[in-house]
């Protein structure tokens, strides 16, 4: 029996092509997924990585061998696959390793209506069947090629009307990822003067990693925004399900500020609605949601938790610090493209700059995520808990890692990585000096 624990992650399947992931493995996953969902049809899409088309074809062969038909939508962003799953009401598989380096690939799976498949909702079952080399049924299914890019673009434009905004000058850095495929069609005909960067689909990522949360990967975008005098810059990750924003000065706009901005817009359409935010987003998010008559709900980090809370609460929107944005009107799935359209609409519906527009959503200073390599994650977390738990006026919670709230309003979260020997620290406080003081004190204990 094979041990695939290194490939089957909490929310997806991911590994090095040729070493951890190959056509035989993917064929077996396709068969197991077909048995899990029971057919009769699944939809499959893939990103621009060199290995993606062949792996998607192998997955289709596995599903076909269980008598399940496949609709192959070809090149797609992950949120385009969610659109296919939602609009066709079919289970789906997306071949991508998101922002990981070129040697990686993987599979994101969902049930009909873009409902997530994670360890507790089917992925563990698939892993067990693949490890056990469960024999196929010997049935046959068909493959249909279908292009859904235009339908995806039309659906998004129906959710956010950009036709009446003032003309905007926009720089888009697709990072040689799937944004180069989807952005031109989505933005076609809109009052946007787009300067494209790195639209060429290239899974080797020759210009920079397709991970806009890493500051070094938006340097080119920042420079281009300043150079051309753009109103806004947008950067998409490899599978274009996340979008990062920079303002007219080239300064990053935090995903928390984007979460708050979009939440206000969604609450204007649906007063009193629930908005989900993970526990690392700025405290400004629940404050602003409440001020606009909404109901903020705090949850753990990770799309499966966000989507579960959205289903249970009927939430209209959800946001994470990692620039994932979830919409009830998009089958509770995450779509950076739709979030970017909300920001463009908010900017274009008024005469001011993006920095002015987002200033009201930036209330606190933050450290960003700081990683520390430690041998004993649990021991270091226990040391932090003991240190701060003994202080007056401090409150602790362990919803996800350890969150510590200090008497002056500052807070930090320390959580262990699921896949690496790391502790991840996020700090928020009134100003940069206060953030630095808390950060340095916590890291001195963590790295002792």
Q: What is the domain total for the residues?
A: 3
* Strand percent estimate: 15-25%
List low-confidence stretches: none
CATH architecture of the largest domain: 3-Layer(aba) Sandwich
Q: Oligomeric status of the shown chains?
A: single chain
What is the CATH T-level topology of the largest domain? Alpha-D-Glucose-1,6-Bisphosphate, Chain A, domain 3
Shape category: globular
Helices, by number, come to 14
- The secondary-structure class comes to alpha/beta
Q: What does the main sheet amount to?
A: 7 strands, mixed
Over all CA atoms, what is the radius of gyration? Answer: 22 Å
Terminal CA distance reads: 41 Å
Q: Give the total of beta strands.
A: 23
CATH homologous superfamily heading of the largest domain: Alpha-D-Glucose-1,6-Bisphosphate, subunit A, domain 3
Range of helix content: 25-40%
Cofactor: Mg(2+)
Keywords: Isomerase, Magnesium, Metal-binding, Phosphoprotein
Pfam families: PGM_PMM_I, PGM_PMM_II, PGM_PMM_III, PGM_PMM_IV
GO molecular function: metal ion binding; phosphomannomutase activity
Set down the secondary structure blueprint.
Layout: E1 13-16, H1 23-37, E2 41-46, H2 52-64, E3 69-75, H3 78-88, E4 92-95, E5 104-111, E6 115-116, H4 123-131, E7 143-145, H5 149-159, E8 168-173, H6 179-187, E9 192-197, H7 219-228, E10 232-236, E11 243-246, E12 252-253, H8 255-269, E13 274-278, H9 284-291, E14 295-299, H10 303-313, E15 317-319, E16 325-327, E17 333-334, H11 336-348, H12 354-359, E18 365-366, E19 370-373, H13 377-389, E20 395-397, E21 402-405, E22 411-416, E23 422-429, H14 432-446
Parallel strand pairs: 2-3, 2-4, 3-7, 8-9, 8-10, 13-14, 13-15
Antiparallel strand pairs: 1-5, 4-5, 5-6, 10-11, 11-12, 15-16, 16-17, 18-23, 19-23, 20-21, 21-22, 22-23
Helix pairs in contact: 1-2, 1-4, 5-6, 8-9, 8-11
């Amino acid at each position: 029996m094979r041990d695939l624990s290194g490939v089957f992650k909490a929310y997806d399947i991911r590994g090095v092509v040729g070493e951890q992931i190959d056509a035989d493995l993917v064929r077996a996953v396709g068969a197991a997924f077909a048995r899990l969902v029971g057919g009769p049809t699944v939809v499959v899409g893939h990103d621009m990585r060199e290995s993606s088309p062949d792996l998607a074809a192998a997955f289709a062969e596995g599903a076909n061998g269980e008598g399940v038909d496949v609709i192959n939508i070809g090149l797609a962003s992950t949120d385009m696959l969610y659109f296919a799953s939602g609009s066709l009401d079919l289970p789906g598989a997306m071949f991508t390793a998101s922002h990981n380096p070129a040697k990686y690939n993987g599979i994101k799976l969902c049930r009909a209506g873009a409902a997530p498949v994670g360890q507790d909702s089917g992925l563990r079952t698939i892993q067990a069947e693949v490890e056990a080399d469960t024999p196929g049924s010997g049935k046959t299914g068909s493959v249909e090629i279908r292009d859904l890019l235009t339908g995806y673009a039309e659906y998004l434009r129906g959710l956010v009307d950009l036709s009446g905004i003032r003309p905007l000058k926009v720089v888009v850095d697709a990072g040689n990822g799937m944004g180069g495929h989807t952005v031109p069609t989505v933005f076609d005909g809109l009052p946007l003067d787009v300067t494209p960067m790195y639209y060429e689909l290239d899974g080797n990522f020759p210009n920079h990693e397709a991970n806009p949360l890493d500051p070094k990967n938006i340097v080119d975008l920042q420079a281009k925004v300043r150079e051309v005098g753009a109103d806004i810059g947008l950067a998409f990750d490899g599978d274009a399900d996340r979008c990062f924003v920079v303002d007219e000065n080239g300064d990053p706009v935090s995903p928390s500020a984007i979460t708050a901005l979009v939440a206000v817009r969604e609450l204007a359409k649906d007063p009193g609605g629930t908005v989900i935010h993970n526990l690392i987003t700025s405290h400004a998010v629940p404050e602003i949601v409440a001020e606009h008559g909404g109901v903020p709900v705090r949850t753990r980090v990770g799309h499966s938790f966000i989507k579960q809370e959205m289903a249970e609460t009927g939430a209209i929107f959800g946001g994470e610090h990692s620039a994932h944005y979830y919409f009830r009107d998009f089958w509770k799935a995450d779509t950076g493209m739709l979030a970017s359209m909300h920001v463009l609409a908010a900017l274009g519906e008024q005469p001011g700059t993006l920095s002015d527009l987002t200033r009201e959503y930036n209330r606190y200073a933050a450290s960003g995520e700081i990683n520390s390599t430690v041998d004993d994650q649990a021991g270091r977390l226990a040391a932090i808990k003991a240190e701060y738990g003994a202080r007056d006026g401090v409150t602790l919670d362990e919803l996800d890692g350890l969150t510590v709230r200090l008497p002056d309003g500052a807070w930090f979260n320390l959580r262990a990585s699921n896949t690496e020997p790391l502790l991840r620290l996020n700090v928020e406080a009134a100003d940069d000096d206060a953030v630095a003081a808390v950060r340095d004190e916590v890291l001195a204990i963590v790295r002792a």
